[in-house]
Every structure is written in C-alpha cells, then in structure tokens.
Amino acid sequence: MSSIPSEPIISVRGLEARYGEQVILRDISLDIYPNEVTVILGGSGCGKTTLLKNILRLQEPVCGEVTMLGQDILGCTEAEYDAILKQVGMLFQNGALLNSISVFDNIAIPLEQHTKLSRDIIERIIRVKLHLVHMSHAIHLLPSELSGGMKKRAALARAMALDPVILFCDEPSAGLDPLTSAALDDLILDLKKQLNMSIVVVTHELASIHRIADRIIFLEQGNLIFQGTLSQAKQAGIPSIETFFRAGKYD
Amino acid sequence: MEQIRCSEGTLFLSGAFTKKQVPLLHFEAKRLLRHHQVSRIDPSGIASMDSAGVALLEEIILWSSHVKPVMLLPAVPEVQAVMDTFRSVGIPKVKLSLRAGWFEQTGHNFLQRMKVLYESLLLASEICYWSLVGILNRKAQKRGSTLQQCIQLGYNALPIVALLSFIIGFILSLQSAGQLRNFSANIFIADLLSITMVREMGPLITAIIVAGRSGSAIASEIATMQVTEELDALRVMALNPIRYVVVPKFHAITMMMPILVAFSILVGELGGAVIALGYLDLSLHTFVTRTIEIISLKDLIVTFTKSTIFAWLIVIIGAHFGFQVKGGAEGVGKATTASVVASIFAVIIADAIFSLLYL
C-alpha cells in the first residue's frame, strides 16, 4: 500500500533471543513503518511471540538493537522506557486481564495511573473503547466470567485505553468466531485509518492477513526469511511462504 | 494562548485536545460555561485530538445544551475522524455503582452463606462416599499417592507437633506446680496433666497444627489446580477430581491424625514429667502409674474419635475452599486463608460439642 515508506517507527537490528541454551531468534533485522498494519507470521513455535516480547523488552535479548519511536529501547533508562510504553498498547495472547477486578477497572488502570483525567471523562473513554470492541455489556463483569474471545476483546480495549501510537496484538483473532474476528479486523483497519496508529499483529489466520496486512514479516524457525508487502511475498518464490498461503486454500 | 474562547455565543476550541491538556481544559471549560451562554461550538481550531479530547468535547456539549441544543460545527478532517471513532453518542450509559441496600445485602449474604453450607455438605458427602469406595477400589487414584500424602500430612508434621506439645505440657505443669505445692498435693500433677493432655490439649493442638499446615496446603493445591484448569483437564480425562485429588488426602489424614495425637499426648506428658520429677520431686514410677491409672478407656475412645472428626473437617473444609476458588493468584491466597480460618473455627466448635457431650 504505502509505496514510499517513511522513517520506520520501530527498527530492529541483529536481534538474537535464547531460552536457556536454545536459540529462539537468530539475527533478526526488521523495520516497522508508521500508519501501517504489519503482520508477523510463521508457523507455531517459530518465535513470533518471543519477537514481540523482545521488541518490547519484556524479555531481554542476548544481543541486538531495538529502536522504537526514536528511542533505543534496550539502552534507555527506566523512565525513558516507561515514557515509550505509555505510547504503546499490547494485547496479550490470553488477554492477561487482572483477574480480581472488573473489566471496567482493568481498562481504568492505565487511565488512572498515567493521566490526571477526571472520573467522568475516564468513564466516557472506557464506555467508548468497550463499545468499539462490542463489549459494552460486560463492563461490570470479572474476567473469570468472560469467555476466551471476550477476554481478548476486553484486553484490546485496555490496550487502546491510552490511544497508543503503536498497538501490538498477539494473535487477536485466534479462538474467535469468524464474525467477531472480521469485526476485529475492521476495527484494526479503522484504528489505522482514522487514528493513524501503527499496528503490529502476530497471527496465522490467512483470512485476517489478507484483510489487514500492509506489510508482512515471515519467520521460520527463528529466522526472518521475508519482509515486504503481501503481493511481494506471494511473488517472492520462497517455498515455505508459498506453502503457507496454499495451506489455507481449500478450493 | 487560550484554547477555549467564547465570543458572541460561540465557543471556539483550538490547539491540542489530548490527555495531557484535558484536565486543565476541563476546568477551564467549566469556568467559562458558568458565565456564558453558548449556542454554537466551533472545534475547527483543534489541531490534534484523542479519546480524552472527544470525551471532554461531549461533556462540554452536555453542559452547554441544558437550555437549548447547541450546534457543533465541523472540525478539520483528521480531527473529525478521531471524533467519529470515539463518539460515545448512542452507546447506552451504564450504572456505575451496583451497590445494594443494607437489607438486600444482608439477605443476599445470608442466602449466599446457606448456599455455601449446602455446597460444602454436598461436597462432604461426596468425599465420604468416594473415600469409602476408594478403600477397596483404588483404580481412579494415583498409585502411591496415599503413602505420599501420609508422609506429607503426617510424618512431616511430627517435629512441630512434638515441639509444641512438649512446650504445652511443660507450661501446664509449671503453672500448676506452684499451687499444688502450696497444698502439698504434688502427686495430682499426674492427674491434671494426663486429663488435660488426653482429653483436650493433645487433640486440639494437633488439629490446629494440621489445619495450619495441611489444611492450607490442601486448599491452595486444589485452588491452584482449579485456577489453571487442571481440574477441568482431569475431568476431561474422565477422572473424578475428588477421587483423584481429595480421597488420598482423606485416607492419609484419617490414618495419620490418631498417630499424631497419640504422639502429641506422649510428648506432652514428657514435658510435664520434667516439672513433676525435677520440681515436685515425684518418682518416675509414681508419675507413670498414676498417669496410667487416671486415664479411662472412654477418654481414649472419645479422644481418638474426635481427632478423626477434626481431621475430616480439615480436609473437607480445605477441599471446599479449594474447589470454590474464583479468580487467579489472588483467589488462591484468599481461599487458603479462608480455609485455615474456617477449619480452626470448626475444630474448636467441634471440640466444644464433644466436651459437652462426653464430660
């Protein structure tokens, strides 16, 4: 889509991650551009989630550099890191909502902690965010009273609470029914178009990839084997990518 | 520059309307609108906006339209897009506080308690049933789990039971020794000590230690399994969680509790003997014969019966709170605490009932 890429909003250079002795990611270098939906894909266990966690410094990489919003994430101070995190939202694979408080309070956490907004304004924001993910009815429920898909949507509302510049979504549509999943994709496109968010999505749902992806990053067993647009990926002639896209077509 | 301006009935908004500015602008807008009547709002000067800004704008519209509706002029396209996305118009308002009245709450709590009682009785009957079945049929249990539980719930508790019983026996005798000496009734230390240790202190001390040690372990183990869906997984594998998890503990504690109590009584007597022999100048022979003489068979039967009942109460209450857990890590902590408090309470109440029945 955007043929003239501007300055990357996230750039990763030579990232390597290990889990004990096992190397999870090998020499990853990639760029993520503003106002685009970047989809990280690859088979299960190829290190997609690990890559996200390393980019966000939730896990410390063995070596490499990550620059996000012009800040060196791995080398910056705790305060600078916090400042970056306030501009970032993340949707975890299982939602990771705090279990002992309601959905409303979960979404209120970032708003109460990082802004001085009054209660009325916060309430309005939360209602809007929950409405955007079609979860208005669950405002008072506890996370343990939600289904997996509902947890995920509530968690997405929490990730959007501070109107982040970059939104990371770890498998947003996994475990959702096709209708909800399509609605979520539309929401992601809306966020990109109307609010100029940059969105990084980890997924392996082909339908979803076709709907939302501007740019894809393909991982295979810890190696980055392709980055570029979707059409480039299909023409690149890389066997594993072709298999990946063929696997989803049943006709 | 002023971001909110009012002239000729029009409210001009300009600059950035984002989280950072909104708290101040909120205050500003409130102040302005108190003095001015506004019929139009012009947001065309707004350069950037986020959801907090939109929420504020809606609040402003709400305040200024209490007399007659205000007109909202269009904003620049980028800001308009943000406004359209985060519009709360048409989203139904929800009641934020769901607090019930005092009577409603009391009634609700009462019903809730009755339900908990009913459920725990149900669980107790189920545990008892499967424990009886489990004596003969060990198929649905992990092999060796009863022995393992015996070690964990019984053998590992020996040191702490010994230490506390010794100290209790010692203190009891020490406190009474002075009085007995005044009346030259030294010999009665043996009666006093054995009656207290056998009838009360032995079973009670042991039950409280077991409730704190093993009751909490049972509750937290089951609660964690519940939270991590392990119990569901057992269920799916066609295993009854009660049979698989609770029954071995039930068997183990039923076997170990009388042994622990007997041990506690013996060590308590030992602690008392130190005072009796050392301070009250009784001979070992007198102390031992007197102790044995004073204990009746009925005392022993009641003691071991009630300690078994205590053990069952502890397992059932621990399991009950474990199965009832809600929420994540915090729920496990709460369940554990609640189970310890409830089982100590239940043990003391049961002890009181036994004392009244078999005085």
Name its key features.
heterodimer, A: 251 residues, alpha/beta, 4-stranded antiparallel sheet, 9 helices, 24% strand, globular, B: 359 residues, Transcription Regulator spoIIAA, 2 domains, 4-stranded mixed sheet, 12 helices
Task: Provide an overview of this structure.
The complex is a heterodimer of chains A (251) and B (359). Chain A has 251 residues and is α/β, with parallel strands linked by helices. Chain A has helices spanning 48-55, 78-85, 103-114, 119-132, 148-159, 178-195, 206-212, 230-235, 239-247, and strands at 10-19, 22-32, 37-41, 63-68, 71-72, 88-91, 166-170, 198-202, 215-220, 223-228. In chain A, the strands form two sheets. A six-stranded mixed β-sheet of chain A has the order 6-7-8-3-9-10, with helices on both faces. Chain A has a four-stranded antiparallel β-sheet with strand order 2-1-4-5, with helices on one face. Chain A starts with 9 loop residues before the first strand and ends with a helix. With 359 residues, chain B is α/β, with parallel strands linked by helices. Chain B folds into two domains: 4-86, STAS domain (Transcription Regulator spoIIAA), CATH 3.30.750.24; 125-357, no CATH class. Chain B has helices at residues 22-35, 51-64, 77-85, 102-136, 145-154, 158-182, 188-227, 230-236, 241-278, 284-294, 297-323, 329-357; strands spanning 4-7, 10-17, 40-49, 71-72. Chain B has a four-stranded mixed β-sheet. In chain B, helix 7 packs parallel to helix 11 (297-323) and helix 11 (297-323) packs antiparallel against helix 12. The N and C termini of chain B lie far apart (88 Å). At the A-B interface, helix 4 and helix 6 of A face helix 1, helix 2, helix 3 and helix 12 of B.
Write the layout of secondary structure elements.
The complex is a heterodimer of chains A (251) and B (359).
Chain A: E1 10-19, E2 22-32, E3 37-41, H1 48-55, E4 63-68, E5 71-72, H2 78-85, E6 88-91, H3 103-114, H4 119-132, H5 148-159, E7 166-170, H6 178-195, E8 198-202, H7 206-212, E9 215-220, E10 223-228, H8 230-235, H9 239-247
Parallel strand pairs in A: 3-8, 3-9, 6-7, 7-8
Antiparallel strand pairs in A: 1-2, 1-4, 4-5, 9-10
Helix pairs in contact in A: 3-5, 4-5
Chain B: E1 4-7, E2 10-17, H1 22-35, E3 40-49, H2 51-64, E4 71-72, H3 77-85, H4 102-136, H5 145-154, H6 158-182, H7 188-227, H8 230-236, H9 241-278, H10 284-294, H11 297-323, H12 329-357
Parallel strand pairs in B: 2-3, 3-4
Antiparallel strand pairs in B: 1-2
